[in-house]
Structure formats: C-alpha cells, structure tokens
Amino acid sequence: MSEVSATESADADGARASGLTATAASRDRPSRRSVLLIGEGQLADATRRSLESGGAAVTSLRDPSDSDVRDALEPGADSAVVIARSDVAALRFALGVAYVSPGLPLLVTIFSRRMAAEVEATVQNVRVISMGDIVAPPLAGPCLDPDLLAVAGPPGDRFGAKVGEGESAPSRAPLDAPSPGWAARAVRRVESIVQPFDASARILMLGLAGVLAVLLVETIGTSVALGVPIVEALYTSAKVVVTVGPSPPGDQAPEWFKLFATIAMLLALGFTAVLTAGLVDRLLDRRLTGIFGRAAVPRRGHAVVVGLGQVGFRLCQLLRQLGVPVVAVERDPDADNIARAKDEKIPVVVGSGGDGRLLRRLSLDRARALASVTSDELENIAIAVAARAVRRDLHIALRAGDGEATDEIRALFGIGVVRDVDRIAGTALAAIALGSDVREAFPYEGTMYLVDARGEIEAFATVRAADRERAG
C-alpha cells in the first residue's frame, strides 16, 4: 500500500514550525488507526516505520512543548506512544499527553520498575514497558541454545520459540534451561572462592589460606611431637599464631621443635600481613564483585554480558532467573546500572569487553555464552570476534543492526546470533500501540514474530502482507 501525505502544504509549514512532522496520515481513510509518536532516536524511528508498515497514520513529535502536544491531539488520535532516553523525559511527556487527552490509550517506555508502577497507578489507560524487557528474551534464547530464537512466557511458565524440523515458522518448544543441583552449585561456589577474580580477593584468600595452613601444621606437629591432646595443641598454636599468648608445651620442647615453631611463627606473621593488606583493600576499595555467594564472579557454565545499559542489565536479570550465572562487563565505572547490579548482587567487572586477556580471566573458555550488548554496533562486533579467538564454539549473541557491514563480518568470522534490538523493540511497541497484547518479539528470516499474553506466536501483520492475503 502506498503512503500518502497527511497534511496539505499550509498545515505542513505550520507543523514544521512547531516541530511537528506528519510522517504518515490519511484524512480520507478514516479506517486507519491514528497514532501520536513522541520521541527521537533509532528506537523511535524503528517504531514509526513499524507503525506505518502496520497501516497506522503516524504523527511524530521529537521534542515537543505542551502546546505542540495539544495541537497534535486536537484532530483526534486513537493512541499515543512516548519513547525517551531518560525516564524523567518519558514521564514528562506522558503526563503532558494524559493532561491534554485523559483516557487516551498511552504506551510509555520507562526503565525504572518503581517509576513504571507509579505511572501505571496514576495515569489512566497507560501501559509502561522498557526496551530492555522487550529485547532481553530474544538475546537470552541464543545464550542457551543457538537454535533458540527467544525465551517467552512469565516466570515459572517459560518456553522457547524455535523452528522445529520440517517447520517453516517458529512455534513453542520446551525450554531446556539449566537447573544445576546442589552439588553443582557447591562446586561453583568453591571454584569462585579458590579462584577469586579481584586482586584484593586473591591477596585476602592467599593470606587466609596461609594462616590456616600454618595453624594446621603447627597443631599437628605439636600434638604428634610432644604428645599433647589435639584440642590443647590447637589452642596453644592459635595463641601463638595470633600473638596473644605463649606456648607452654613448646617452651619445654627439644631444640629442633623450637626451630620448627620459629619458622611457623615467621610464616604466620607474613601471611597475617598479607591477610591484613587484602582485608584493608577490600574494605576501602569500591567492591563490585564478591568472594563467595551470588556476587562472586562465576568460573564455569556462566554467561558474560558485555555492556550494562538497559538491555544488558535486563539480560543479566533474565539469565539469572533462567538459572545461568552471569558476570557483567562495563567500560564506564560510573554507569547508572552499576549501583543497581550491586544491589542485586550481579558481579560487575570494569574493563573493555574486547580485551582478550580480560576475557580469559573471566574463564571464557569454560563459559556457556557471551552477549555483547553495548550501544556501539562496531564495538559489539569486535568483542564477538575477540571472544571467538578465545573459544571457537562459544554461544555468542550480540546487539547489532542488519547492515551490510554486519552481514559481511558475520559471514567471515561467524560471530554468532545478531539481534537488531531497535527493530525488535520498535515492532513490539508498534504492535501494542495498534491494539495487540504483546509480551515478547523476535525475528526469524526477516519477519518479526510476536508472542502475546496467552503464549501464541504470530507474525507481525504489515499492510503489504494483508494486501497479498486479500489478493490471494
């Protein structure tokens, strides 16, 4: 279906003066759904294109004032979509739309779940969703299995979207998410403790292991050599190691034992200094990883997520819900989501995801997957190539477009599964604005597929597809 201009020249001049652009409209086609789109950037552009391909008449406002919003809504609109980089800007535009046109179906992108809940409780007929929530499922799928197009469904009832043998379109498939038992989890915890990532943690664990080893050897030596009960030997050895008291059995021991005890005390003194240095460093330094527990950097069967923006943070949360240990890599030490990750005990490593040495330190050779989801497409590709150099058979998912450069590099290096997150999110937002109850979206063979609240999978209906259907 060909697109026609929505405004006459005089109206277009006035719209340009106020920042209003009618991208697709149709005064003589009342059946078309009219949508007001507020926002700028790649996601807003992708949403506009999807709305137009779905047959909507779209009026776009990039950075409107209240009067611009009022003028755009005056002719009437079926729904409105607000897309902004910051939650504050999205909230401001959403409140402006709700004030001008109370009850108008409104779709808003807000990342903070707390703010989203407040907006949904305050504004009538609004749905709040974040880009990260939309695109995390199609990125998590390839992290579990390269043939898995996406993860769908609510927690506790998740399933996979996959093209089965002999099928031409995606369908529901059982989700083979990892569910390690207590023994596997215990092994992972021990590995994280024995091989800590941070230098301060390594120093701390070295000092602690040294002190305990000296205490054990001296206890056994005192008990065996001098015939002292094991409990008394442990008590006297501990007093010597922590320098709070003498060792009466040792004072009456032969000279060779005194020499042994002297060496043990000197070793204990050195290891105590190392332990103290590591402890002070841990207390004073900014700690983004732990030594044990959920905040420790995993060493086996984990996923490395490079980029801790909205997409990366939501992907870390989803993978954790699926039972996959995660570690995030972020170049900017002052990134907003680092504090959120720390609150949720997601380990974060500050550095470049394209650094092969860092990837090896993250045990990428024993990892389950790597997801590169920074906002820089070329950086994501470089990270994927670097990860391939460390491990050839690693599951890799990356955020990139469908441009020629991506296709060429993917053909040369086999960089993994590529997801155009702007197109995925834009299609989902457009479908919601057009009246669909969409929960997830994912691409397959150039077509975008939607998953609704009932778990049904269907292709996004475009105007051209509908025309072909009618012609057939």
End-to-end CA span:
15 Å
> How much helix is in the residues?
40-55%
CATH class of the largest domain: Alpha Beta
SS content category? alpha/beta
CATH topology of the largest domain: Rossmann fold
Average pLDDT across residues?
83
Main sheet makeup: 6 strands, mixed
What percentage of the residues does DSSP assign to strands (E)? 15-25%
**Fourth-level CATH superfamily of the largest domain:** NAD(P)-binding Rossmann-like Domain
Apparent shape: elongated
Stretches where pLDDT falls below 50 for ≥5 residues?
1-30, 466-472
Which radius of gyration do the C-alpha atoms yield? Answer: 30 Å
Number of helices: 18
Strand order, largest beta sheet: 1-3-2-4-5-6
CATH architecture descriptor text of the largest domain: 3-Layer(aba) Sandwich
Describe this structure in words.
This protein is an alpha/beta fold. It folds into 3 domains: 121 residues, 3-Layer(aba) Sandwich (Rossmann fold), CATH 3.40.50; 86 residues, Orthogonal Bundle (Helix Hairpins); 125 residues, Rossmann fold, CATH 3.40.50.720. 48% of the residues lie in helices and 16% in strands. Strand 5, helix 5 and strand 6 form a beta-alpha-beta unit. The longest helix has 30 residues.
